[in-house]
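Write out this protein's structure.
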Amino acid sequence: MNAYAREKSLSQVAAIIVTYQPNAILLARVLERLSEQVAKIYLIDNTPNTQLEGIVWLEKKWLTQFTAPIAFYPQGKNLGVAKAQNIGIEQAFADHMQDLIFFDQDSSPPKNLSTQLLEARGQLEARGVKVGMIGPTILDEKSHEYSPIIQADLFWVRGYPVDLLATQPIATEYIISSGSLISFLGFRRFTIPFTRSISLINPFIRVISTGEVQALTTTPVRSGFSTRTKPAYASGCSAGGM
């Protein structure tokens, strides 16, 4: 991907972050890291009472320190992750964003994560693979253990160790939502009709295979207590929570 194509692609990527009683330092970290690699950030806060919780700092003025435009949606109550994500999804698509990347409030993505995910997906699609969702795997910062690659069939679900020497995205049945990237076309293919009831639910996004693929990539991303690495992609088709 040349510099012009990369810049154009990133101009159509939006980040969606759901917060609940966030830590100011960790939230600032993810917002700062994302500001250089997405066109806009949609921040949906589920904290019931920010004054009571001592989170009075989380307001529009505080968010102006970051370079990316941030659309802030304080809910004043805990809607749950899925419903809050849907608010961001709906707003982003109304703003004509073409790709969405999801993050937890304590994530710490590397500077080139969005670019690497877009490039990995592009390489797969160039080979004729229909990619449902693509995202990194996780390295837990406390245990220093990698999340396994999940494979499933009708009657079983198994986890396999991550191949740290792999140079290509790895097909998987599940992708953790934080760090995952999905396109507007992917939503239309996998969740038609798109309504408020369509939900992405932490900690996993499941794509039921129908000939398309979910993938993991190899980009390290720190997420509060974890670091993501190795992209994975999901090919399949309807998205649901686990």
